[in-house]
């Protein structure tokens, strides 16, 4: 009998939809779209709004490039490395996910022994959006100085050499999966790995310009809040889609996600108010993110009361490492992690994985179909916590080594990791020839040959199209000539 995993270009079966549960299929495609919107809407807005005005275009563009690049690499080799048949304890057998014979058979995560009731094309897309968001989270550590061409090379290399290793090891049937390590929806595979990789890449990249690092005011706080809101709601798909079906475990995961996130946001806000005298919108966003990350490794394995406990830790431990420890530790101050990804994703992801080993209940894990050999610590499963720690150390160690190798390889082939200082001074206009906000008359030089002129004279009744303005007085003309971006 032919191996369906290798039927890359085979014709589809005569009745390819006979196995499809339309409810599960619709839920899975919907949750995948939610996760995709987290990246293409939520993080585009959040990154584009949280940086200085001069970096809004570059930051958002890094997100969109990464999504597109991972899509192509994913179907060419990434999916089969992550969820294909066994090749190595940490890597699946290579192959594409493009052939009709492969995409129309019933979904099957072969080594993980899961067979959802829909086509392979659904599971390929669902797992893609998780793969796509991970390097975007790394970008949060590198904003406002990484050379865009270096980013172009970094994303596919890191995806193949790091993300797929963690995905197969923990999810796809690799050695950590077989050992019984728990990671419901990516606390280790996505957040611990991206938080670690971002911090390591920031070390090799070096810091932003001193004045940018000392004063990095968001250019649009409302965009930041809207982006965070999209992340929060999109996480219903992030965790709700992890059981691969529209079942009770999905509902539990969605509820726990919202409980933990709300608790974390409120905790962070209270701490900001107590220690700094004012509640901070940006601080609340950090609390939202840490809550979402913390709950992810165990969202469908734990009871609701445990989600509240995790939320309290999510809003306090990363708050302490970011707001107190990072300002006192010479090591943390030396490495310029632009958005504090090591705190919001690595610290929160690590703790969330440990808590999964503490609060997981076998009955709830059984709903997911995991190979959990014992209960969590609260039900006597002492060994599960140890497994969670060991797997976290593997993810951290692999990403330290591989991210370092990739960054130095990019430098070795002659691509500068950083933008030139003169580009860093100007920002988007120098890097891309574009500006996020065309607000003339605020010190920006208006170049008619580049920007054109289409104006309207609203002083008369109705609207009258007019041409370029009359020549400016001599003093104003001189000011415009010397104005800087």
From TrEMBL:
<keyword id="KW-0812">Transmembrane</keyword>
<dbReference type="GO" id="GO:0005886">
    <property type="term" value="C:plasma membrane"/>
</dbReference>
<keyword id="KW-1133">Transmembrane helix</keyword>
<feature type="transmembrane region" description="Helical">
    <location>
        <begin position="308"/>
        <end position="326"/>
    </location>
</feature>
<feature type="domain" description="Ammonium transporter AmtB-like">
    <location>
        <begin position="27"/>
        <end position="437"/>
    </location>
</feature>
<feature type="transmembrane region" description="Helical">
    <location>
        <begin position="217"/>
        <end position="238"/>
    </location>
</feature>
<comment type="similarity">
    <text>Belongs to the ammonia transporter channel (TC 1.A.11.2) family.</text>
</comment>
<dbReference type="GO" id="GO:0072488">
    <property type="term" value="P:ammonium transmembrane transport"/>
</dbReference>
<dbReference type="Pfam" id="PF00909">
    <property type="entry name" value="Ammonium_transp"/>
</dbReference>
<feature type="compositionally biased region" description="Basic and acidic residues">
    <location>
        <begin position="476"/>
        <end position="485"/>
    </location>
</feature>
<dbReference type="InterPro" id="IPR024041">
    <property type="entry name" value="NH4_transpt_AmtB-like_dom"/>
</dbReference>
<feature type="transmembrane region" description="Helical">
    <location>
        <begin position="151"/>
        <end position="172"/>
    </location>
</feature>
<feature type="region of interest" description="Disordered">
    <location>
        <begin position="464"/>
        <end position="485"/>
    </location>
</feature>
<feature type="transmembrane region" description="Helical">
    <location>
        <begin position="389"/>
        <end position="410"/>
    </location>
</feature>
<feature type="transmembrane region" description="Helical">
    <location>
        <begin position="26"/>
        <end position="48"/>
    </location>
</feature>
<feature type="transmembrane region" description="Helical">
    <location>
        <begin position="338"/>
        <end position="359"/>
    </location>
</feature>
<feature type="transmembrane region" description="Helical">
    <location>
        <begin position="283"/>
        <end position="302"/>
    </location>
</feature>
<keyword id="KW-0813">Transport</keyword>
<keyword id="KW-0924">Ammonia transport</keyword>
<dbReference type="InterPro" id="IPR029020">
    <property type="entry name" value="Ammonium/urea_transptr"/>
</dbReference>
<protein>
    <recommendedName>
        <fullName>Ammonium transporter</fullName>
    </recommendedName>
</protein>
<feature type="transmembrane region" description="Helical">
    <location>
        <begin position="123"/>
        <end position="144"/>
    </location>
</feature>
<feature type="transmembrane region" description="Helical">
    <location>
        <begin position="184"/>
        <end position="205"/>
    </location>
</feature>
<dbReference type="InterPro" id="IPR001905">
    <property type="entry name" value="Ammonium_transpt"/>
</dbReference>
<keyword id="KW-0472">Membrane</keyword>
<feature type="transmembrane region" description="Helical">
    <location>
        <begin position="60"/>
        <end position="81"/>
    </location>
</feature>
<feature type="transmembrane region" description="Helical">
    <location>
        <begin position="250"/>
        <end position="271"/>
    </location>
</feature>
<dbReference type="GO" id="GO:0008519">
    <property type="term" value="F:ammonium channel activity"/>
</dbReference>
């Amino acid at each position: 009998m032919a191996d369906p995993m290798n039927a890359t270009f085979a014709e589809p079966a005569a009745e390819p939809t006979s196995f499809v549960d339309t409810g599960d299929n619709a839920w899975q495609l919907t949750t995948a779209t939610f996760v995709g919107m987290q990246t293409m809407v939520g993080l585009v807005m959040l990154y584009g709004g949280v940086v200085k005005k001069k970096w809004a275009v570059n930051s958002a563009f890094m997100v969109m490039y990464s999504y597109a690049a991972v899509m192509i690499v994913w179907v060419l080799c990434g999916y089969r490395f992550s969820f294909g048949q066994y090749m190595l304890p940490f890597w699946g057998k290579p192959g594409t996910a493009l052939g009709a014979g492969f995409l129309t058979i019933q979904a099957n995560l072969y080594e993980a022994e899961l067979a959802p009731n829909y086509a392979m094309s659904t599971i390929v897309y669902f797992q893609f959006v998780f793969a796509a968001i991970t390097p975007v989270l790394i970008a949060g550590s590198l904003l406002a100085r990484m050379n865009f061409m270096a980013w172009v090379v970094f994303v596919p290399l890191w995806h193949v050499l790091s993300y797929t290793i963690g995905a197969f090891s923990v999810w796809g049937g690799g050695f950590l999966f077989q050992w019984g390590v728990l990671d419901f929806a990516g606390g280790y595979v996505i957040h611990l790995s991206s938080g670690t990789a971002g911090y390591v890449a920031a070390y090799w990249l070096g810091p932003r310009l001193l004045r940018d690092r000392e004063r990095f005011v968001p250019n649009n706080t409302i965009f930041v809040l809207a982006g965070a809101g999209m992340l929060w709601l999109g996480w219903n798909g992030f965790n709700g889609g992890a059981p691969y079906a529209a079942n009770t475990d999905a509902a539990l995961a969605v509820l726990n996600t919202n409980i933990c996130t709300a608790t974390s946001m409120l905790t962070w806000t209270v701490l900001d108010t107590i220690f700094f005298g004012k509640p901070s919108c940006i601080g609340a966003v950090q609390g939202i993110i840490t809550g979402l990350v913390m709950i992810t490794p165990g969202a469908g394995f734990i009871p609701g009361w445990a989600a509240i406990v995790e939320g309290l830790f999510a809003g306090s431990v990363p708050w302490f490492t970011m707001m107190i420890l990072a300002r006192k530790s010479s090591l943390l101050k030396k490495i310029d992690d632009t958005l504090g990804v090591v705190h919001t994703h690595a610290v929160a992801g690590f703790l969330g994985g440990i808590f999964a080993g503490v609060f997981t209940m076998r009955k709830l894990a059984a709903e997911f179909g995991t190979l959990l050999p014992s209960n969590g610590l609260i039900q006597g499963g002492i060994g599960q916590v140890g497994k969670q720690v060991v797997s976290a150390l593997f993810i951290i160690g692999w990403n330290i080594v591989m991210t370092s190798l990739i960054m130095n390889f990019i430098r070795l082939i002659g691509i500068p990791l950083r933008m030139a200082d003169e580009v860093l001074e100007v920002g988007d206009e120098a890097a891309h020839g574009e500006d996020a906000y065309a607000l003339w008359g605020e010190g920006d030089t208006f170049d008619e040959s580049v920007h054109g002129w289409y104006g309207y004279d609203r002083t008369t009744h109705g609207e009258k199209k007019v041409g370029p303005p009359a020549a400016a007085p001599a003093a104003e003309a001189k000011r415009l000539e010397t104005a800087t971006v």
